[in-house]
Amino acid sequence: MLSTQQPTDSRQRRTRFARSRTAAAVVAAALGTLVALLAAANFFPASSNILTLAGTYVWASAAPHLFLVSLGAVLLTIPLWRARRRPVLRAIASATTGIALVASTVITGSLIHSATSHGGSVNLVQALALASPTEPATRISTYVTVDGEPLEARVYQPEDGAIGAPVMMYIHGGGWETGSAEESEPTAQYWAGQGWYVVSVNYRLSSTQQPTWDKAPADLACALNWTDRHAAEAGADTDRLTVMGDSAGGHLAVLLGWSAANGAAASTCADQGEVPVPDAIVASYPAIDLQYNYDHGVAPVPGIDPQEFTHLFLGGTPTEYPDRLRAVSPLTYLGDATPSTLVMQPDRDDFIPAEGNYRGMESASQAGVDATIVPVPFAWHAFDAPQGGLGGQVKNTVTQNWLEERDLAPQR
């Protein structure tokens, strides 16, 4: 008597394989659709809705990951093609994964090109790991106490010691109303790891009870004086002094450097002497033109409103306080001594609109300033988090190259 077990087992295996093939194609189509939608979001204003915002924000940190997802999705469609089954599903999966792979390749390549064309570089293995430094501050001090509030300076010393290291003061962002030096620790840690003597500082934050249009800049002028003095005591090279900031901190960095060069930087600790003039300013997605930002900035989600935090900072609208607006506008202080300035500009940013910064840096360039603005494609506000991500590497390596070209970086 012949056994029917073997043919039955064979049919069951074929059935299971066919189901697996179909499931793989369905997964591929879903993954391809997701990546394609994230890419397509870049054809619309970034803050239109949660999808366009996600599609704008995710690429600078996760473009290599999305490329690998797209590549994996393409590979999942191969068994269905080889079997020549389910033509409709096969076509959908092939189309979505093909679009996803092309889009993710183009976007990843554009971000890499943004770095390499401006002297930077990218390590894709590191970008996949999304690593950030974790070394703690070397020292935490109070650089001044004002109105009963101690303002903190966190010092990060390079591994080889402070002797001869260039100096960097870092100013955190947060719309002038939130944030702290502690929360921004990975940025300071990164630059200390590259050989800078870094001081990351706090300043008074605005609130409904206290606008800080005059207070925060004065605090930071005091912090720069403290940084210069203590860096010199540690043996660091204060003749190579950079001020760096992101977002609102970027605005305050540009304001501090440009007003100090103009001799117009008021200080909370005026008794400590003149405010040093930095050799360079580096700002990422700053609010250089507050009026433009107030008029055109778009809230990405409810509760994070450029108009609201500008109102808190000034104590009213720009129209109500034109003198305050002028006082905190970096463009007010342009002059022959304005230090070299680099702006890292995510081109998809409509929160702090990119156009305002392009206009501001064009004005600086026309005034004879060594002004450089580097566009970062497919990137939105805070594109550089985490430090080891693709966006972080673009920002950090381009900035380091720019500082090296001006002899403001550690000696290699």
Please sum up the structure shown.
The chain has 412 residues and is α/β, with parallel strands linked by helices. It has 12 helices and 8 strands.
Structure description:
By secondary structure, the protein is an alpha/beta fold. The chain folds into 2 domains: 113 residues; 278 residues, Rossmann fold. Helix content is 49%, strand content 13%. It has 12 helices and 8 strands. An 8-stranded mixed sheet has the order 1-2-4-3-5-6-7-8, with helices on both faces. β5, α7 and β6 form a beta-alpha-beta unit. The radius of gyration is 26 Å and the shape is elongated. The mean pLDDT is 94.
By CATH, the superfamily of the largest domain comes out as: Alpha/Beta hydrolase fold, catalytic domain
Shape: elongated
Q: How many angstroms separate the termini?
A: 83 Å
H/E element sequence: HHHHEEEHEHEHEHHHEHEH
Strand order of the largest sheet: 1-2-4-3-5-6-7-8
Average the pLDDT over all residues and give the rounded result.
Answer: 94
